[in-house]
Amino acid sequence: MQKNDKGEPLLKFENPELDKRIGGLPLPSLTLVEGPNDSGKSVLVQQITYAALKAGLRVLYITTENTVKGLLSNMESLNWNVMDFFAYGVFKITPLHVSETRWTTEVSKYFLITLLNYVKRRCDLLDLVVVDSLTHLIVHANENDVLDFFSQCRQLVDFNSKTFILVLHPYSLNQELLVRIRAICDGHFNLSIRTFREKNFLTLNVAKLKGASQSSGSFISFEVSPAFGIKVLPFTAAKG
Question: Is pLDDT larger for residue 235 or for residue 169?
Answer without folding.
Answer: 169
